[in-house]
Amino acid sequence: MRAMIIGPQGAGKGTQATRICGELGIPHISTGDLFRANIAGGTELGKLAQSYTDAGKLVPDDVTQAMVADRLAQPDTDNGFLLDGFPRNLKQAEWLSTLLAERGTPIERVLLLTAPDEVLMERMLARGRADDTEEAIQQRLDIYHAETLPLVEYYGDRVVQIDGVGEVDDVHDRIAAALDGTGPDPQPATTDAVGG
């Protein structure tokens, strides 16, 4: 299974991705983990990424893409993978499609984890992190709606929309049913049905 999970911050992507990957026996490829591993390992890409983060700047797409390409070339991805946190925008999605087409390993399924903005706001404020102010959270949600949600249209019928509200086990059961085809017919994913 070659899949990706997308959704706003606070939707529970990381938690669900870890469980799915454990059950399917495929690697969970998170861009956050890739950054940390490359920086900790002192790789050239890690040093480059660190230079941007130290300056308070966003790491450019080409650096992130190089890390993703390197990770997808590892042998443990031969039987599949789950991308988490990448692609974040259409430009990255187009790059990824080209890379995977060259290898004959296109994305098969896109899991769209959804929750209303007010639920996400409550969850993130409850974490109590210093950078989780209402203003900062709203800004991140606005960026998600503007840049990441267009991926729903880009991936079309490969997208399965999963309600991310509820207990962790319940959400996981919805994902498992969607992946093995035993759940109800998936809702057609639309950009206006994902909170806002």
Automatic annotation (TrEMBL):
Kinase keyword on record: yes
Signal peptide: none
Stretches the record annotates as NMP: 30-59
Pfam family, one: ADK
GO CC entries: cytoplasm
Record EC number: 2.7.4.3
The protein's enzyme class: transferase
Molecular function GO terms recorded: AMP kinase activity; ATP binding
Annotated compartments: Cytoplasm
Keywords: ATP-binding, Cytoplasm, Kinase, Nucleotide biosynthesis, Nucleotide-binding, Transferase
Principal subcellular localization: cytoplasm
Domain notes: Consists of three domains, a large central CORE domain and two small peripheral domains, NMPbind and LID, which undergo movements during catalysis. The LID domain closes over the site of phosphoryl transfer upon ATP binding. Assembling and dissambling the active center during each catalytic cycle provides an effective means to prevent ATP hydrolysis.
NCBIfam families found in the cross-reference section: PRK00279.1-3, PRK14527.1, PRK14531.1
Family membership: Belongs to the adenylate kinase family.
Database matches in HAMAP family: Adenylate_kinase_Adk
Function: Catalyzes the reversible transfer of the terminal phosphate group between ATP and AMP. Plays an important role in cellular energy homeostasis and in adenine nucleotide metabolism.
Record's protein name: Adenylate kinase
Designated gene of the protein: adk
